Amino acid sequence: MKTKANLTEKAKNGRNGDQLVYIIDCIKESSRATDEGKEFKTDAEALQFFFDTFEEEYNYQNNKRRWPNLAERIGAYLQGLPSCCNIDYTDHSILLLGVKWGVLSSTDDKKANKFLKDFFPVCGVRILQAAQKVGLNPYKYAV
User: Fold this and answer.
1) Are the C-beta atoms of 105 and 95 separated by less than 8 Å?
2) Local confidence band at 1 (pLDDT 50, 70, 90 cut-offs)
3) Taking a C-beta distance cutoff of 8 angstroms, is the pair 55, 141 a contact?
4) Which pLDDT value is given to residue 32?
5) Which residues, in sequence order, are CB contacts of 92 under 8 Å at separation 6+?
6) Which residues does 64 contact at the CB level (< 8 Å), separation at least 6?
7) What's the CA gap between 9 and 57, in Å, rounded?
8) 8 A C-beta contact, residue 19 and residue 119
9) pTM here?
10) CA-to-CA dists, residue 20 to 31, 108, 109, 126, 128, angstroms
11) Quick one: CA dihedral 47, 50, 53, 54, positive or negative?
12) How many Å apart are CA 46 and CA 28, to the nearest integer?
């Protein structure tokens, strides 16, 4: 599979584009990347860094059995606040993201609880989508 350097403008501006950009930015601004002095020239490099760290820290056999679905496994990893992805974790900041992305009309919206419940698994899906858009094969980590 040929690797593309970055998400295309179409992907960034398309459906879920804000979420894809958010995920990439969270990886690029992560504490581990900062501590290691990483400067990513491409989105593909940032995503590869995420998957390498995920493989090292979390993607072991017991977790593969616990979460056979890769997106759910990545979501569970994100919920544990990994060092390679500086993702929002407080309910308040997550709900503000929902409003910013246009998914929620307000933080008191009836959909707010569902958005909170689904936030980390959806971010797992977005990481997989972003990886595919830059030409990486994230499903090699599935088994």
Assistant:
1) no
2) very low
3) yes
4) 93
5) 107
6) 73, 143
7) 32
8) no
9) 0.90
10) 19, 25, 23, 6, 10
11) negative
12) 6
Where do we find the tokens 């993201």?
Answer: 97
The alpha-helical segments, DSSP class H, found in the chain are 9-13, 17-28, 31-35, 43-57, 61-66, 70-79, 91-100, 112-133
SS3 60: coil
Q: State the residue for tokens 């350097």.
A: 5
Q: Compute the distance between CA of residue 111 and CA of residue 67 in angstroms, rounded to an integer.
A: 25
pLDDT digits (tens, 9 = 90+) for 4-39: 668 766 667 777 889 999 999 999 999 999 999 999
Q: Are 130 and 20 in contact (CB under 8 A)?
A: yes
Alpha-carbon distance of 97 to 143, in angstroms, equals: 32
Spatial CB neighbours of 74, under 8 Å, sequence gap ≥ 6:
54, 123, 124, 127, 128
Residue 106, helix vs strand vs coil: coil
Q: Judge whether residue 121 has pLDDT over 80.
A: yes
Q: Distance (Å, rounded) from C-alpha 49 to C-alpha 6? A: 14
